[in-house]
């Protein structure tokens, strides 16, 4: 099993050749940035920028956290403690009012109001301690709160609790009233320092909150600025390491592609760009080398072509001169041999007359060969091309030249209506005469020759056909039969010089066409007789393209 060829698979054939790029070990090391690879640059840059961004965001996060903590201290702890201080002061005043009302008027509801105020004072004091626990500077407030609650307890122990334990409604004597007033003034006097202390604590918490807020604000601005700076640095790094070197390399490669092969491609940049420039520069050098080599080969080929053309011209001239000059001696040899036979034939024996016949036959065959060589050498040298040649007239002239042979063999020649083509009339007559003459000559024994000439339009050319019912040609000789002096049969079987088909090929190619053996066609398609079909093309007249186009692909001009 053989692998499919690119033509069978439809794939584009891959061209291969020696490498134009230096091996990696021989690529020269770059200078400056050219020593550093892009991956290293971006790895280091990413690490540095990542560390800066991380530090900035951590700092901003910590500032926001500190601001949140300061806000919680002020709003969730100091402010409620301040409110509880006012409740504490109100509870002390409420205790005094309730206990005096009970002492003057009696009534257990005043005692209950007194005891509720006592509980409110204790609850407010406990809440203040709980809220301010852990707040920086709370120790002074705790000390003032302890002194205020101690003086309040002293007032209750020295006056209020004893009145509440009594029957009530009996009034307060003067001495006891002065003691109670002194103790109450002392307890209320403690509220002012307590309020001052908690106010100072509130101011410090508010100042701290403002400071943390400014710090968080500036940290956020710094983080945003760092992000913008990082984006700008990345853009600058990308421009410096990729865009600028690639743009420069593209411009220089474009200059080379436009024909400036001397433009070097040394582009400063990272190692990858430097390596790419070196590789492309090596390809440029290879292209220059191949171009110079190709130019040198083309020049030598032109010189050899010119030499071959000159040599071929000399050979053709020699063949023409030799063929022309040899005819006269050959005619003289044949004529004198025939005269010798006529005058002295009765004096010669049978062998002598046979020798003379051999000499005359050889001279005539040599003369035929020379005539064919002369015709062969004239193609392309002594042509008289015409713009339009009527092929119907050409075929009639060729058939007239073969009239004797046609009458002797009883040949029938069917000719379709043929077009006009540009060309040499004499050579076209020779072409049809040779093909029809061969068709009649290579006939089958006992079968009258039948020759058919047809034509069809294929694009910008006419395709002619000459088919016969003769002995046929083995397809393996399809190329050999067009070589000069090539014969498929002995001279005893069929006469000829072996130049006829070579002359046809030369005439057709001189007119810009091609000729070939159509091995699968013959004159009688409904039979199994071998036969031979030759097909050849001739260019159509440009001026008749519109008219002739109507019959394109129909197979016959009559269509």
Automatic annotation (TrEMBL):
Its EC number is 2.7.13.3. Residues 240-292 form the HAMP domain. This is histidine kinase. It comes from the Bacteria. Residues 321-542 form the Histidine kinase domain. PROSITE patterns: HAMP, HIS_KIN. It is an enzyme of class 2 (transferase).
